[in-house]
Amino acid sequence: MKRAGLQTITLNRELADAVMPERWASLRLNLDGDQAIMVAARGITPVLKFALEEARLRRGALYVLYVKELAVNLPARIDPVERPRWQDDRRAAEIMYGMLETGRENGVHVVPIYSISDNPAMTILDLSATLGIDILILGASHRQTLTSLLKGNVVTEVASGLPENIQLVIHG
Q1: Apex CA 84: angle with CA 46 and CA 71, to 5°?
Q2: Contacts from 157-165 at CB under 8 Å and sequence distance 24+?
Q3: Residue 159 in contact with residue 123, Cβ under 8 Å?
Q4: For labelling, which of 3, 58, 68, 125 has a CA lying 20 to 30 Å from the CA of 166?
C-alpha cells in the first residue's frame, strides 16, 4: 500500500538537538571578499606564503606587519625627527618589497605596516583592533619554536588579549 503526505516520527531530545540547524550556523563558511588579514612577520618564513594564499582565497587585503623590537624600555618617549620607515630597515624592506611583488603577481592587495616597539604583543593587538582585522596570522619557523613560544611570549600574550571577533591562526 502506498502512503501519501507527511509522516510523523518521534525523536528523543538529544537527537533532535543534534540536528538543529541553529547549532551549525557558527560553522558556515565565510569566504566573502573584503576580509582583512594581518600577518606578523619577523623574517621570510612559510607563514608569509600561507598568509598570501589565505588573502587570495578570501579576496581580502593582506596587512604585513613588521615590528622592530626595542631591546631597552626607555623611561621617557623620544620623538624622532622623522617617522621610522620600513624602507630604511634592511630586514623589513626585504620582506615588504618581496610581499608587495608577490602580492601583485597573485592579485592580492598587500599593505605594509612598520612599527618600532618595546612590546610587540601589545603592538600587534593594538593594530589588529584598530585596523578591524578579521584574521591574524602568526608563525614560527619550526614546530619546536612554536611549542616554546606558546609557553610564554608574544604568541601567548597576543592569544590572551585578542578580541573574540578576530580569528587567530598560528602557522608553523
Answers
A1: 70
A2: 157/121, 157/122, 157/125, 158/121, 158/124, 158/125, 161/121, 161/122, 161/125, 162/125, 162/128, 162/136, 163/128, 163/129, 165/134
A3: no
A4: 68
Count of beta carbons in the 10 Å neighbourhood of residue 47: 22
Grid cell locating 64: 604585513
Interval 67-102: pLDDT, tens = 988 776 556 665 656 788 889 999 999 999 999 999
Instruction: Tell me if residue 136 falls in helix, strand or coil.
Output: strand
How many Cβ atoms sit within 10 Å of the Cβ of residue 50? 16
Per the listing, cell 615588504 goes with 96
**Dihedral of the CA atoms 91, 137, 120, 142 (nearest 10)?**
-70
